[in-house]
Amino acid sequence: MKKLLVASLALAAAAPAMASEIVVYSARADELLKPLTQAYQKKTGTKVTLVSDKAGPLMEKLKAEGKNTKADVFITVDGGNLWQATQAGLLRPINSSVLKSNIPSNLRDPKNHWFGLSVRARTIFYNPKKVNASQLSTYADLANAKWKGKLCLRTSNNVYNQSLVATLIAHNGQAKTEQIVKGWVNNLATTPFSNDTALLEAIDAGRCDVGIANTYYYGRLLNQKPSVANNVKVFFADQKGKGTHVNVSGAGVVKHSDNAAEAQKFIEWLSSSEAQSLYAQNNFEFPANPRVAVTGNMARWLPSSFKRDMINVSVAGQNQQKAIMLMKKAGYK
Ligand code: FE
Which of 81, 164, 181, 316 is the residue whose CA sits 20 to 30 A from 107? Predict the structure, then answer.
């Protein structure tokens, strides 16, 4: 009898661990998520399999696989991409008091198809040998002729810039935003860069006085080459107005997941204090959970106390097409 009880207890303990496996389609770098999936696996016994690619191909894969998909969780960057996935019907709403408590309402889908898990600011960087911080103020001010030949931008086909412009449209309307973007184009020091790191390096090298980039690229660059801090500094835009544009990386449960409960638990865990600092700070992002503090080098390079634009990040998706058209019309390549 005793033996039988022990055996059945062992079975009961082993059964959920064996039954649980989730597949995560991830547009994030493997080295960012691996420490988290391993920690989760160790803690819960749930095996987490990562399938990594860029956001676009992963969404196409989810569409093509439909009901036959093995995916349970979709993780990607930018409210614009998460909004696209929702529009395409690839995600299902999550009803989770844990996620609602951990993630502020502006950093999640109003209909709960996805939740932000880390925050990045897209803001102004400048070379302090050429520019005094007192000369800087807003994204709109970078359209002022005083920056002629001094501004650097990344290409407009990048979702981060589409999301920034989409948000400017929400705040300023189309006509004013078009003026701003035209002003930026007129002020360019050189043709737009294909990535944020190249742009920051150009500021470091003195080729541009000011530019717009995501904060975590600055963190990464400083981590590799601390001397960059002498030539490139962060300026949080619009502090007297709406606040600096922030965006997220985030996750949702795949519509045709056959393990939605486990998928939800994993996303809930990613929003917890335990996972948040690891998830965010591995990539020099800010935690999305406001109860988690920024520490270490990150806090020194990228203070988290700036005023953030509180508009819901899904506006990046809602206005994405308008933003793309507007940038094209303004001659922003
Ligand atoms: Fe990025």
Answer: 181
